[in-house]
Predict the 3D structure of the following.
Amino acid sequence: MIYLGIDSGTQSVKAIALDLETGKILASGSAPHKMISGLPEGHLEQHPESWTTAADNAVRACLAGLGDAKSRVSGIGVSGQQHGLVVLDKDDNPVRPAKLWCDTSTVPQCEMITRELGGVEEIIALCGNAMLPGYTAPKILWIKQNEPRNYPKIRSILLPHDYLNFWLTGEKSMEYGDASGTALMDVRKREWSKDVMAVIDPDLPEKLPQPGSSKEPVGLLRESLRTAWGLSGTPLISAGGGDNMMGAIGTGNVASGIVTASLGTSGTLYAFSETPVIDPKGEVAAFCDSTDHWLPLVCTMNVTVATEQARNLFNWSHEQMEQAIANAPAGAGGLLFLPYLQGERTPNLPKARGALHGLTTANMTQGGIARSVMEGVTLGLAYGLERLKELGIAPAEIRMTGGGANSRVWRQICADIFGVPVVGLISNEGAALGAAIQAAWTHRRTERQTADLRELTGQLAPVDPATRCEPGPDQKVYADRLRAQTRVAAQLHAGGLL
């Protein structure tokens, strides 16, 4: 049997076809979509219709690559960028463009909700998470306060992957994993928080699907799409999930001791947990996963966006940058890069900007600056990893994914900074692979077949032993640099300079 995994990200949609029997990805397709240009600073939006158009093109390309084997497609799973707000009218058309996870225009709404509910500690007590600009809840209030003509038109609220599921099946649904990233859910009980909703809009529960188990399918593929794609059978559509939840499945992060580190445009660190992990400081996101467990997560907004900026600054190829960083000393000769080019989520500094600290005539070189950038974004993730450890997560192995995971130098820097062995995956499909595996898992369960997710991920998402890096002697250097970065950022922020 073959299962499709669709991953709808911020820049494109990708579709892969996974053969369950061999574990091979038989075909893939992708299609780009764009941000809406010309918006004010901090506003980041996309048209939901651009996702469905890109998904249609990506799936068609993938199925073309399968040829006659597309008759074996039995299920489809969808991964989507988290937190985005999709609002539909009475005819199920988008009322306005979707506000995205990276939209930071909602700081005033976060402050208002927090104040109305009695402070950060009270919000965490109610739903397990602090109210941050990236989450969905403040976006809803933003529309209510800033677009009085649009808000009354809203009849349904979905997340990006839910909207794609609706396009595929005609069913509106929301599963525990992605729903936990709205800041509207009590993640301990997996129920909507009536107190949080009441501050935004007492009628909000009527606009949201009731969150349900991530193990249950959404439905079957619409007949119109089945015909358009030339499929002989009608595939089942699994619940899918947010990109981090699907990334966890796609990296085999479905058991205690494994942590996933994603080095993409933004960065994430997340771990499997049998029980809710609530951070009283609100720095670790207390998410549910898409297996009906929990996924404590740290997100930073500046990873390859920063390293690519440095690479382009010096007009290097990836190979040239790799060599220059390898030739520079660990710790970049005392040069410290604060990677807050787009504001930051962890720590919560949405209006912060980046900085180079500690420049000297010795370290102000191309290699020194480039290494400080790579180290700075990794130290930002390490700040979150330390917080995860304080909350009881004990990482034995960190599995790397995302574009940055392809760099041997970066993997070694990660091992040294994290103080934990790191390893890449045979497949770097991440969230798309996770979506396909979840579809296979769900289909086998509905067919009453044996469906152990840990066994499935072991077979379908194996690690690549050749990429393994063990922590080396530079651990002490980086422990000092982590303390220095944390201290400098705090001091600059306290002085109004960050």
In short: The domain at 252-429+462-498 is CATH 3.30.420.40 (Nucleotidyltransferase; domain 5). DSSP finds 17 helices and 22 strands in the chain. The first strand starts at residue 2 and ends at 8.
